[in-house]
Structure formats: structure tokens, C-alpha cells
Amino acid sequence: MAEETKDESQYEVWLNIIKDSFAKQGYQKVTTDDLWEFCVNYLWKHQRPTRYFEEVRDIMAIEPNDYFTYASLKAQVYNVSSLDEMNLEDLF
Questions:
Q1: What's the DSSP call for residue 46?
Q2: In angstroms, rounded to a whole number, what is the distance separating the alpha carbons of residues 74 and 59?
């Protein structure tokens, strides 16, 4: 986990550029942590680029459609084992 955090700090500038781009398009709630999670768990799931500039290129190519495809897939596979774990009072 420390390695992942260290890695994220190296890309903070690039992630902020994409976050700001999303905000200009009306998606203010997307954070740099969300974008980093997208990169690690989706974009580079099978193979992470070996060079820094390749990773930056991948980050700079992220479009809202790419991110929201990942977010919707993540939401669909979210696992709730029982209704007891859900806070139903928020629904009323």
C-alpha cells in the first residue's frame, strides 16, 4: 500500500489536470484518488507501462466516458451480503 501511495504522489500533477478537466465538463465530484484507482484497477489491470512517460500518456488520455464505464462496472459488482449491512433509514 505504501508503494501505491508513493506512486500516486508522482502522478499528482497529471491526475489534477484530468480532475480539473472533468470539473470543467461538469463532473466536479471525481477526485484524484478516484482517477488513481481507475488507473491501477482498470487501465493498468493486466500490465502497467514500464516507463513514466507511458503512464503519464495513459493518464492524460483518460476521458470521462472511460472513467464512468469503470465506475458503473464497479457499482454493478459491489457486493452486499445482506440487508442488515445496508442503512435503510437513509431511504426513508
A1: S
A2: 19
